């Protein structure tokens, strides 16, 4: 792979390394672990949540990830897959879905190679889209699936994410919270995530999802022809009439018309508490459309003059309540 500023910006936050041939790759011990899992539980012995958590710890050690996972994460994996999930569903998950996810992870380096080749002409490659830096990242749904599998296996480095104001991306806190303070809503959040993985293992979607950081200039000049960020009292003094709009007193935002713009203004960090204990508007949206979580990998917190627009994320689950 040719060196690029895009790859250099995101590489410290990926679990891959650059080999002697300048290609992205997994460390050899991780390849061995993933190949074993891809051959099924009879070969890998990964047949329950407790053993899965041990396999996760072993792979993290092979990646030299020094930062510990949430203390109760292994207990959360065991609780969900060994107790909360039915016996039949658990056996199917470890016999069919875990091997497919392992195969998908083995293909992550090649998926990224193709991604950077395809995005080179347009500048939509995976990179850190930092504060006050407008730009877009365009990811295939297959690549997003591989990235979220990294989250499930907690393989992303986290030591420098706080310095870049990047939100949580591994799923250890999600599972730890399930054990530490069980609630039905937290269990169902995990069920939504697992449903997503089961669906893509059954049939991988073939579309793309775009993530765009947008901003309004903080400086005001009378000669500017473009919009700038309004002063604090702009809205109270404005005499500009509103455009026509409709008000619906019932129903869910995500159930309204196709091509509608859905707005969430809950948190400066993309995803809010989706991977922790949060379970209101933003977190619910990220659970039923898990591809949104991929943006948490590379999109730092937003300032007052910034917004993030995501287009193309598929809905995989429904909910009540």
UniProtKB/TrEMBL annotation:
Q: What biological processes does GO assign it? A: ATP generation from poly-ADP-D-ribose; carbohydrate metabolic process; nucleotide-sugar metabolic process; regulation of DNA repair
Give the family from UniProt.
Answer: Belongs to the poly(ADP-ribose) glycohydrolase family.
**Where would one find coiled-coil regions in this protein?**
none
Q: What class of enzyme is it?
A: hydrolase
Tell me the keywords, alphabetical order: Hydrolase
Q: Single GO molecular-function term?
A: poly(ADP-ribose) glycohydrolase activity
Q: One short Pfam family name for this protein?
A: PARG_cat_C
What name is this protein filed under? Answer: poly(ADP-ribose) glycohydrolase
């Amino acid at each position: 792979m040719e060196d690029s500023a895009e790859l250099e910006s995101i590489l410290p936050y990926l679990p891959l390394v650059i080999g002697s041939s300048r290609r992205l790759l997994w460390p050899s011990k991780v390849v061995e672990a993933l190949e074993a899992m891809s051959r099924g539980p009879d070969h890998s012995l990964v047949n329950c949540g407790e053993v899965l958590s041990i396999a996760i710890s072993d792979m993290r050690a092979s990646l030299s990830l020094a930062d510990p996972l949430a203390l109760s994460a292994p207990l959360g994996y065991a609780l969900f897959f060994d107790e909360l999930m039915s016996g039949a569903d658990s056996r199917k998950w470890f016999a069919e879905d875990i091997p497919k996810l392992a195969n998908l992870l083995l293909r992550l380096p090649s998926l990224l190679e193709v991604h950077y080749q395809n995005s080179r002409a347009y500048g939509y490659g995976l990179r850190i889209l930092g504060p006050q830096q407008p730009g877009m990242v365009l990811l295939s749904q297959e690549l997003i699936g591989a990235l979220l599998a990294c989250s499930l296996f907690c393989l992303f480095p986290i030591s420098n994410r706080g310095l870049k104001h990047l939100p949580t991306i591994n799923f250890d806190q999600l599972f730890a919270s399930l054990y530490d303070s069980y609630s039905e809503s937290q269990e169902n959040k995990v069920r939504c995530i697992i449903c997503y993985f089961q669906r893509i293992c059954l049939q991988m979607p073939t579309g793309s999802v775009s993530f765009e950081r947008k901003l309004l200039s903080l400086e005001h000049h009378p000669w500017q022809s473009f919009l700038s960020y309004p002063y604090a009292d702009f809205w109270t003094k404005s005499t500009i009439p509103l455009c026509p709009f409709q008000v619906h007193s019932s129903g869910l935002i995500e159930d309204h018309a196709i091509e509608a713009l859905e707005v969430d203004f809950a948190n400066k960090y993309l995803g809010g508490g989706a991977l922790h204990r949060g379970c209101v508007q933003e977190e619910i949206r990220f659970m039923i459309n898990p591809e949104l979580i991929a943006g948490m990998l590379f999109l730092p917190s937003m300032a007052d003059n910034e917004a993030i627009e995501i287009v193309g994320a598929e809905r995989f689950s429904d909910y009540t309540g």
